[in-house]
Amino acid sequence: MGIISEKRRNEVLASITVDGSIKVSDLARRFDVSMETIRKDIKHWEQAGLLKKTHGGALLKSEVTALRHINERIVENIDAKNAIAAKAVEYVPEGGTVFVDAGSTTVCVAKHLGIMNGLTVVTNSILAASKLSDGGNRIRVIGGVMRGDSLGTHGVWASMALRTIRIDVALLDSSGVKGFNGPVINEPNDAEFKRAVMERSANKY
């Protein structure tokens, strides 16, 4: 998909996020494309779990967690997050390369990885990197555009950096799973970055 098409697709989601709903005909006029093109954009985000198609348009799925700063989220359900983190690090091979995503649960993962040694840890999370800085692992921080709510990087620069790395295990965060057929992401650029991580990783959790 070209840059113009990707930009339009992201703007379609942004419009629905702001307004709560849209009409295909309105977006087709706005972007000067066919209604079928807009329907394909809507289908893309519906498959990502962010939208629900309606007759002639789409609605934002209200179950997706609203964006809140990670400092608020990191103290919620801490016991559950630590349990998830403890299980997640069991999948990390000795001496392997592991990607740690930006997110409140993956900060807990970083704490558990911090007591291990000999790993290469790749992360787009400023908080995760700080938790790992004093350990016996090699840390690679992915640059890019930083999201203020998650203190994580994403975007074109981040995705380009991933092309130079092979990952054994990717430990990814999400915006939620309740009410969906799997994890969902509520920020389009973040979703594209996670997809790039998965393409570079032998295993994804």
Order of helices and strands: HEHHEEHHEHEHEEEHEHE
Percent strand: 15-25%
**Record field, number of beta strands:** 10
- Overall, the morphology is elongated
The proportion of residues forming helix, as a percent range, comes to: 40-55%
How many helices? The count is 9
Q: On the 0-100 scale, what is the average pLDDT?
A: 83
The rounded Rg comes to: 18 Å
Helix/strand/pairing class, anyone?
A: alpha/beta
- The parts where pLDDT drops under 50 for at least 5 residues are 177-182
Largest sheet, described in full?
A: 5 strands, parallel
| Distance from first to last alpha carbon | 26 Å
Main traits of this protein?
5-stranded parallel beta sheet, 205 residues, alpha/beta, 10 strands
Describe this structure in words.
With 205 residues, the chain is an alpha/beta fold. The chain has nine helices and ten strands. It has a five-stranded parallel sheet with strand order 6-5-4-9-10. The chain is elongated. The two termini are 26 Å apart. About 3% of the residues have low confidence.
